[in-house]
Amino acid sequence: MNPVVQVIRLAATAGESILVDNVCFDVWPGQVTALVGASGSGKTTSALALLGEHGNGVRLGGTVEVDGQVVVDRNGPTSAAAGVKGRVVAYMPQHPGSALNPARRIGATLRELERLHHPTENVVVEALRAAQLPSDPKTLKRFPHQFSGGQRQRIAMAQALTCRPKVLVLDEPSTGLDSITRLQLVSELEGLADGGLGILLLSHDLDLVRALASQVVVLSAGQVIDSGGPEVLAVAPELAPAGTTAAGKPLLKAMSLSASLRPRGRDPILHGVDLAVRPGHCIGIVGRSGSGKTTLARCVAGLHERYTGRLLLDDQSLPVLRKRSLEQNRRIQYVWQEVRGSFDERRPVDQQVARTAQRLRGLRHTEADAEAVATLARLGVSAITAGRPPSRLSGGELQRAALARAVLAHPDVLICDEITTALDDHGTALVVELLTELKDRGTALVWIGHDLGLVAAVSDHVLVIEAGRVIEQGPPATVMTEPKHDLTRRLVRAARIGHRPPDSPPVLTSSNDTRSEPRR
Amino acid sequence: MRSYAAQRAALALVQLAVLSVLVFVLTALLPGDAAEMRFTETLTPERISRMRTQLGLDQPALERFGHWFGNVLTGDLGTSLISGGPVADIIRHSVGATLVLTLATLAVVVPLAVVLGIVMGTRENGRLDRAITSVTLALSAIPDFVIAVLLVAVFSLKLGWLPATWVGGDLLASPALLILPVAVLFGRTVCLLSRQVRAGTISALQAEYVVQARRLGVPRRQLLLRHVLPNAAVPGVQELARTGDTLLGGVLVVEAIFAIPGFATALVDGVETRDVPVVQGLTLVLAVAALVINLAADLVCNRLVPRTELLR
Amino acid sequence: MKARLPLAGSVARLPLAVSAVLVVVPLLVAVFGPFVHLEAAPGLPYSSQGVLGTDGLGRDVLQLLLSGGRTALGMAFGAVLIAYIVGGLIGLTAASTRHRWLDEALIRPLDVLLPLPSLLVISVVAVGWRASALAITFAVAMVNVPTVARLVRAAALDAASSPVVEALRMQRESWFGIHLGYVGRAVLGPVAADIGTRITLAVFLVASVNFLGLGLSPTAPDWAVSVSRNREGLLLQPWAVLAPAFMLVSFTLGFNLLADRLVHRSRRLVEVAR
Amino acid sequence: GSGGEAAAQPRQGGRLRAVYAGGGAKEVLDPHVQSLFVDIARHKAMYEKLVELGPDLKPVPRLAEKWEHDAQATTWRFTLRDATFHDGKKLTSEDVLYSLARIADPAVPERVAQSSLATLDLRRSKAIDARTVELVLSAPNAEFPALLAGIGTQIVRDGFKDPTKPIGTGAFRFVSFDAGRSLVASRYDDYWDEPARIEELHILSAESEARANAVQGGQAEYANDMTATFARTAEAGKTVRIVAAKASTMQAFVMKVDRPPFDNPDVRMAFKLLADRQRLVDVVLAGRGAVGNDLFGKGYQYYPADLPQRERNVEEAKALLKKAGVLNQEIEFLTADASAGFVEAATLFAEQVAEAGVKLKVTTGSSQTYAKDLLTKGAIGNHRSGAMPIPQYITDRLLTKSPFNVTHWRRPAFDSGFAAAQVLTDETARSTKYGELQQTLRDDGGIIAWGHPDYLVAVSAKVQGVAAVPPNTLDSGRFDKVWLA
Ligand SMILES: Nc1ncnc2c1ncn2[C@@H]1O[C@H](COP(=O)(O)OP(=O)(O)OP(=O)(O)O)[C@@H](O)[C@H]1O
Ligand SMILES: Nc1ncnc2c1ncn2[C@@H]1O[C@H](COP(=O)(O)OP(=O)(O)OP(=O)(O)O)[C@@H](O)[C@H]1O
Ligand SMILES: [Mg+2]
Ligand SMILES: [Mg+2]
Ligand code: NI
Asked: Rounded to whole angstroms, how far apart are CA atoms D278 and D295?
């Protein structure tokens, strides 16, 4: 059997800078080849070369041979590249949802691709089946916005499959997925590979790679530093769950908290959630995407005003943010999930961070600046980087700046909403270190995350939320090892991909996806 | 969807009712009344006041408005205070010319603007893009009455190629009558529209879904027609709906210069002669048209790109 | 109204200097022209006496040109200024209020006004307060208020409901800090893009009103009035029409080109910053 | 003289499109309600009056073949011509009586001739036979035939009710009408005074610019009431010919003699002396007109042509103004764009008056209400008058009870003098008396008649037989004598 894709000494340069250099890998039919590496290491650049595609001002070199045709040679993309697109290589971009044309019914696009590539066969139905979607006319008549996020991802997959390519390139398919959805993805991909498709997987999610790939190529700064079977990846250390330690009076209490989207309780999101955090304690909140975690956090932070129930800080009633006193404001701080939106585009990041200390702790300008720079440095963000406007910072850097902004208030309760999603292991470690120190000084933490291992490692008590209700809670050790609720069990089991093969095949019906109800 | 339509319709009814009151107040604020406007050197003041009584203008304003409003609810727009003829007739007479003019303009402008916009958008900042932008920009910068005066001077009076006025002309016999008026209205509209289409094309071309379609092997022509055009048309359609009012301002100038007996002229005449029922009727028709056009534009946009949010 | 896509997408191709000259000449004439007095003996209608000949009343066209810009441009600028003061205030208040009813009370009436033909408003004002520059200015301003208010509100609302404002509140930033420091600056962009087109539109509208004889007195030296009144003599003495027309076109053309350039520049800056 | 250059044999047939200043919705089809030029032209094509006016505004017979009156000029006997209506019915005395009754109907105040025919006593008037009618006046009036030639005196058919279905005795019969736009009429073959040569007549309405464009662009063959500037432009080309009736109408400034400062005769005289008539004629009328002598009706019957022409005299005016103490005062001049040249004349006059140290502040009002505003507001304004017999002008504008007395000239002596003149059946005696009255007016009245514009009609080169006569006279706007070469 021959590899369907051969990449030999691929190079990509943009002016002076070298983006990718001397990269070699093969893709075999029926197998998954994974390109792994930190953000910016050249994964996307390498993969797009299979289509002869490159960014503005980027030059390609080396050789890329796809299905016996040379698409890239020493002089860059060849004329054969156009023939490869779709028919041989299908590329799924990082956020497939946005790759669907909002103006066209999904059927129209699928049929169009069918006419283009396989006019005589009925590939659409087949592709939909492979992507686990119904193929009835009603579904085909819907527009992309009438599907849930998970379904949209599968539609993009169906589009790629309609071309019936020999190679499927998947760019970061697991970003933002909860563990159950991620598990579904694994089994979908396995099925496709079994059908003889060659898959190129680009990811920094090592667990996913471990579960799927038969070849792994590790990139770093545009160069291959290691390649071989999955064994080249170090086995992830099992994070030991932290035990319950500190005791004392609860610092923050929420009692039968219910929240809704619209006034007077219409469109409820949360239903009677109780919650208590002690000083120096960390409470972890997990749950599937869209279960209401952020809403709960925003209620506590005083940002979500449409709620009923009681919030107590030190046994004193806690109003919404607008009505909080300076002290109450300082004592509870929130770190945004979508960090980029929470920074003002027009001011340097360090100034925005320092402002907290000025406004909430009355520090002078220079003192505040110094403290901001120090905190950012601890988190691995240099002063030079932080002096830029937010648009020039990477997602990971911005995430840490947002944490610093909240920490500068010296809060008593710190709410962290998925603050490590854009971080690599090193960054995560720096964050955990800072938070542990805060905990030791008596700060209470509310930690929201979908990485169950990390949650278990940081928190003293875990809440599992589903559709706005707490369905299970307890010490992380208990919740992780003896989950009582069915969903918790599935979450835990699904989280273990790459560690140990799942003991039973996951359930793939779309009703398990809380976001899969078609929206109109 | 149905509740949306009902909501829009209810809002529209309220808008129309408030608008009627507003127009009535506006015209009531004007000095003089219709009887006075009929004053000529041969009518004595005593006869004028008798006419005022006959026209019912001596009744309190509120009563007159109530009377008018009640009639409108039954579908009767009343009679003109000046000519004594039914307002509906006046509207029917004047709407035709303006409609022909506007439709003819749109028939020229819309296809051209779409083509130009797409050409410009696909060649962003290229030489062609710059050339078209400069030309349309320059066209749109010339006030319509200046264009009109110059066009008439050159093409009708100097060269004698085209008719300069609708007086004595018959549109059916000589469609050339339309050329100059349309040419005047053409410049600004084509500029506004083509630039919206251009912007739409550029953003659609950069959109992830177009890039993705190209990656899946969709050829360029098909890409432009099926994937780019519908998305690029949305800002254009919205602009078109908004242009209505501006276009009407331009139409007045054109109607005045080419002596076209149209809507805008009738409206201004109505105001000048204090013919309140005529002004009310014309405004009502205009407002209904504006509301319908906006609703249609929203629906079309929603049809083109279904995610467009309907309410605002 | 949603923030308009910036009208201009591309760089003005003419060199900056040309567009600047196009704008500045009519502006200078408008501002300083009225102070210049030429010694021109009255002549016969449409004669070629003097630099640019005479108009239909035997007046010197050059002298008229110098005194006619003040109303032609001043009324438009005044109207846009008033529209922005009134509309901007309404829009900002509506966007920043926490009381939904206040927002509704401010914005709903504008919704109702939107289908009111501007033509009607202007002709009523023009007929009612004939020949008053102030009245026409106000009418043109009032016609623009609803759109300006909605534009400002939409832009401000986007900013005011963004997480940035929440973050600023979490930092206990003052009301002024938030509204002038962030929301106001966010509104500035769309407003700057809008002001360019709005001023040219206002120039057009004012000029059209004057042209149609609904505005200033027919013997006023205003550029648009001159074009209107002298077009009859276009073939006898073209300068009486062409000179004022050129001034108007020069201003709007230059202004359009400049606005186009500015909008493009600001967009490029944003793109570079990304 | 005639406009037609002694062309060859008149040709039959064709369509003539004539454009007049439009009145929009104000245009009417009822011949008794007319007031606009375009209405008059339209009705003239379809209807006729008993009496018409000659080129010097002297009454000439029309539907009335001849007339005679008793010694006091109170009882008038009109003999009708053998004419038929468009529906074939012969013209009779009953039609005349019906028409006059219809005009006088008090329930319809807009019938224009109501005031001028107020002295007609219909109850005592009667038909003598089918073609003789006797009209009796409540007060003697030697000018009665001229009144029957006034506006809105058309003879309609007995029982005529629906003005939208016009039936008259005129040279053209009605086809269609669209207010503010057009009237279409076709030749009436049984017209008593030689049927028209053209087949079809369109009378269109349009503003001045559109009229010019239409006649130049070949979309009309006849354009009424053109500007001097247009005439200048047209004469440079070949397609359009200008037919000018010299000095046919009047342009004037009117001062209210009962309002300060014009209640002082010295001020009135000073203003008359300040007007630079030649310059006004040169600029406002672009030279197409004659200077005025502060009197209406230059060239008409009863005009005192022997009075000396008033000349400009700034020094004398200054002295008078100083004596009256109005130097350096500001006076408001109320004008409007109601008629061509109004604002221009006002602006120019303000400059001329300024030379004597009086500031005239020109205020432009609404053109729609100007006629009424002039009557009630301000102290000085513009005035224009079309052609009409001098006695009628005086009746309408210069008597105590005149409805349109814009100068507020209310002098009992003048009134009685005029009344005395009107009953004089001897024309020479009447003429002398009128002359005296007019001299008082010229020296003491409030009218500064600065110019008499030519009445300009533009016709396309192929139109022949258009007479250069003042408006409102028999041959003006008369299309039955016109032909297309
Ligand atoms: N058009 C371009 N011009 C210049 N540099 C570029 C261009 N496109 C990408 N780069 C740079 O090339 C490097 C590799 O980019 P690439 O998108 O391949 O990274 P990646 O491994 O896919 O990262 P990620 O995980 O963030 O998607 C990055 O440092 C990036 O900044
Ligand atoms: N502004 C909104 N408009 C409509 N629906 C909303 C809005 N905000 C939240 N929701 C819905 O409320 C539910 C809870 O949202 P929330 O953001 O709290 O979820 P989450 O648990 O934080 O999810 P994730 O893990 O994806 O961040 C979701 O179903 C979401 O779709
Ligand atoms: Mg990438
Ligand atoms: Mg969330
Ligand atoms: Ni809008």
From this structure: 16
CA dihedral D347, D353, D359, D363 (to 10 degrees): -30
Q: What tokens does A210 get?
A: 């471990």
CA of B216 to the centre of ligand 2 (A): 32
Q: Does C115 contact B287 at a Cβ distance shorter than 8 Å?
A: yes
Mutate to test the pocket of ligand 1, among A20, A44, A201 (most ligand atoms within 8 A of CB): A44
How far apart are the C-alpha atoms of B138 and C256, rounded to whole Å?
8
Nearest chain D Cα to C131, which residue? D364
Taking the CA atoms of residue A206, residue A208, residue A214 and residue A215 in that order, the dihedral angle to the nearest 10 degrees is -40
CA of B305 to the centre of ligand 5 (A): 17
State the residue for tokens 């002398």.
D432
Give the span between the Cα atoms of B31 and B18, in whole angstroms: 22
Is the bond preceding residue B163 a cis peptide, omega within 30 degrees?
no
| Three-class DSSP category at A375 | helix
How many angstroms is it from B226 CA to the middle of ligand 3? Answer: 28
Identify the structural domains of chain A with CATH numbers, from first to last. Answer: 5-232 (3.40.50.300), 252-498 (3.40.50.300)
pTM over 0.90: no
Phi–psi pair at D234, nearest 5 degrees:
-65, -35
The rounded mean pLDDT for chain D is 87
- All domains in chain B, ordered by first residue: 95-274 (1.10.3720.10)
Number of Cβ atoms within 10 Å of the Cβ of B49 = 15
Query: Which pLDDT does position B40 carry in this prediction?
Result: 63
Q: Which residues of chain A have pLDDT under 70?
A: 1, 39-40, 95-97, 148-150, 175-176, 234-247, 496-520
Atom number, ligand 2, closest to the C-alpha of residue A296: 18
Task: Determine contact, residues D275/D448, Cβ cutoff 8 Å.
Answer: yes
Distance CA B235, CA B159 (A): 40
Q: Which residues pair with A34 in a beta bridge?
A: A201, A216
In this structure, which residue's CA is closest to atom 13 in ligand 2?
A290
Q: Is the peptide bond before D261 cis (omega within 30 degrees of 0)?
A: yes
**ipTM of the modeled complex:** 0.72
- Which residue(s) pair with A405 in the sheet? none
Nearest to D141 by CA among D121, D159, D156, D127: D121
Query: What are the tens digits of pLDDT across the range A123-148?
Result: 888 888 877 778 888 888 888 777 76
Average pLDDT over residues C196-206: 80
Which residue do the tokens 């005029």 mark?
D418
CA A201 to chain centroid, in Å, comes to 16
For chain B, what is the total number of helices (H) and then of strands (E)? 13, 0
Query: What's the CA gap between B277 and C89, in Å, rounded?
Result: 35
Closest approach of chain C CAs to the CA of B221, in angstroms? 24
List the structure tokens of C174.
């003052």
Instruction: Report d(CA B307, CA C5) in Å as an integer.
Output: 18
Single-letter amino acid code for the residue at B269: D
DSSP state for residue D84 in the 8-state scheme: B
Closest CA to D298 of D273, D325, D277, D276: D277
- Helix, strand, or coil (residue A302): coil
Tokens 């440095």 locate to A377
Tell me which residue has tokens 């040169």. Answer: D282
How far does the CA of residue D381 sit from the closest CA of chain B (Å)? 15
Pick from D417, D283, D258: nearest CA to D344: D283
What is the 3-state secondary structure of A101-166? CCCCCHHHHHHHHHHHHCCCCCHHHHHHHHCCCCCCHHHHCCCHHHCCHHHHHHHHHHHHHHCCCC
**Could you say which ligand is closest to the alpha carbon of residue A176?**
2
Do D and A touch (≥3 CB pairs < 8 Å)? no
| Distance (Å, whole) CA A519 – CA C192 | 38
Which 3 state secondary structure label does DSSP give A244? coil
d(CA A87, CA B217): 7
